[in-house]
Amino acid sequence: MRIAYQYRLRPTKSQSAQMETWLNLLRMQYNYRLAERFRWWDENRCPINACPLVCSIAPLADQPEYYGQKRDLVQTKTKFPEYIDIYSDVLQDCIGRVKKTFDRFLKADSSGKRSGRPRFKQRSRYRSFTYPRMKAGCIRDKHITLPKIGEVKLIQHRPIPEGFTIKTCTVVHKADGWYVTLSLCDDTVPTISPDVNQEKAVGIDLGLKDFLVTSDNETVPIPQFARSSERRRKVLNKALSRKRKKGTKRRQIAGKRLSKHYQKVARQRKDFHYKVANWLVRKYDIIAHEDLNIKGLAKTRLSKSILDAGWGEFIDLVRLKAESAGRLTVAVNPSGTTQNCSGCGINVPKTLADRWHSCSCGLELDRDLNAAINIKNLSECVAGVPPVVATRVAVGHWVNKAHRLLCSSRIG
Ligand SMILES: [Zn+2]
């Protein structure tokens, strides 16, 4: 089992200056190695159908690859002695990052996703370095020993769980200071296999009116953190753009204020997500949600509100929490969950403005609740769970009927 803990660091002035220098050198190394790879591609690739039959072919240069670039670090150190000060594992990890980003650019990963062309990083985009191996017992009385940096004061707000060993350690520079992320591993702890009570199933419908509605007709209001603090953001943004001259102290301060504001909003949202996810996982054994295409939704007119709600992050968190608690999450196909009647299964067209579901079969309920019940019913088909006698649900007998219809329509 692998988990990550993050602690705040309190480095001394000289330590933080050293880490800042490292980040800058590593960033330059990253950019250089990336350029090396790009150059090879530009100079040595030839579209075969556009190549003349008779031509002089220059000997093919060696393609920069992971181990070659790693070996070349020796040259870097002789040419630029400042790189000697960086711990060699950290420097090699930087090459690893180049490899990772370039590989993902060239080839899709296992889920078929390919990333775009890697970017050269400016100062604000290279914020962390990693020690891929850490010694046991590197944390001792409120200090962590980072090789070549020394003992750095650490605020250990919670102890490292028993039996876990520290595998890797990443030092991150955030808007409000330095943090350390430890990757902890315990091979003796098996991953919990889901042991669920099928009666404790729930469907959740994520929305913009309420953050979510459960199939038991419970609603969680939406906080809209970014929306409510938009005025402050505008003020800060304006203050920054008024300070035109780049690199000045005043502009730096204004930039820092703005990034701290963003950090605060992000943290508020994260805290809210954790609270809701924990509540769901404690209460239910099976949690069904829509398999949303967040990237697609974020291109619509509602993108600001959708991104502010952070559905994608929330769903990931629910999955994670459920997995570690031995619960089950089911993603269902979102098509028709809003439009179909949860009572009889027929299509009842609605626009986004129609908040009420009213069907010819006599079923009357809130549209989001209708969707949540549909999601729950669909999850039973997906997970192969036998239909639950839905006595707790307000609309009673409708649910089973809808379930039968929906399942038959899906299989047929
Ligand atoms: Zn109906």
Structure report:
By secondary structure, this protein is of the alpha+beta class. It has two domains: about 1-40 and about 60-185, no CATH class; about 200-410, no CATH class. It has twelve helices and 14 strands. A seven-stranded antiparallel β-sheet has the order 2-6-7-1-5-4-3. Helix 1 runs parallel beside helix 4 (about 90-105). The longest helix is centred in the middle third of the chain and has 35 residues, at about 250-285. The two termini are about 40 Å apart. The model is unreliable at about 385-410 (pLDDT under 50). The site of zinc ion has 7 residues, from loops.
In short:
With 412 residues, this protein is an alpha+beta fold. The chain contains 12 helices and 14 strands.
Fold topology:
Blueprint: E1 2-10, H1 13-44, H2 66-71, H3 73-79, H4 88-106, E2 128-131, E3 139-140, E4 143-146, E5 150-155, E6 165-174, E7 177-185, E8 201-206, E9 210-214, E10 219-221, H5 225-228, H6 230-242, H7 249-283, E11 286-290, H8 294-297, H9 303-309, H10 311-324, E12 328-332, E13 356-358, E14 364-366, H11 367-383, H12 398-411
Parallel strand pairs: 8-11, 11-12
Antiparallel strand pairs: 1-5, 1-7, 2-6, 3-4, 4-5, 6-7, 8-9, 9-10, 13-14
Helix pairs in contact: 1-4, 6-7, 7-10, 11-12
The chain binds zinc ion.
Residues 341, 343-344, 346, 359, 361, 363 line the site of zinc ion.
